[in-house]
Amino acid sequence: MTIKHSVDDAVHPPVSRSPRPGPGEWPGFAVAAWGVLFAVPSFVWAWGGTFGAGATVAPSLVKLAHDRVTWFLVVLWLTGLLKLFGALIGIGLTRRRGRWTGRLLVFCGGGAAVLLVWHGGLFVVHGVLVETGVRAVAPDLVGLTRWYLYLWGPWFIGGGLAFAAAVTRYVHRHDGRREVMLHGSVGALGALLLSLASVVTGIG
Predict the structure, then answer these.
(1) Burial of 166 (0-12, 13-18, 19+ CB in 10 A)
(2) What is the pLDDT of residues 4-19, one digit of tens each?
(3) Which of 9, 35, 92, 198 has its CA 20 to 30 A from that of 120?
(4) d(Cα 115, Cα 89) in Å, to the nearest integer?
């Protein structure tokens, strides 16, 4: 029997299959859902619809979308596609990938986590300062500031935390954890430096 099995294995080697995603991979699927849902407004506004934008987005951006300014429409399409790319990253992190693919996913996921938490954190801090009277804004912007405090800020932070959780789970179940973690750390550090630069220069 042993000899027969050895011959069979030599002729028909067992197929190596990637483990299917299980219930423990929910952070990656959460990232995917977050990215798809977040892409919808970008595409809707790019097509000419501004439903929900008037009260929840800065008036200057709403005007650009309403006036069909070409460069802004291009930005809307690109940001929508970028959000869908983020959804693909989330799906990619639900199971082990090849060496370079996995490191690229972790690199992008780590960077996205920092960028989103940073961006959302700025919205929340600004909103809290306005609500507590520490910082003043024009009366017609008070309602908008609350949207950024209670909706967009937490939404960005939630997406960032989902990316962080998905990357962490991917690293923990990977054999070369140290090397994979290094790629994620580089992505996160790069995103942090980019965020700091945007604050210093006032761009973004």
Answers:
(1) buried
(2) 444 444 555 444 444 5
(3) 92
(4) 15
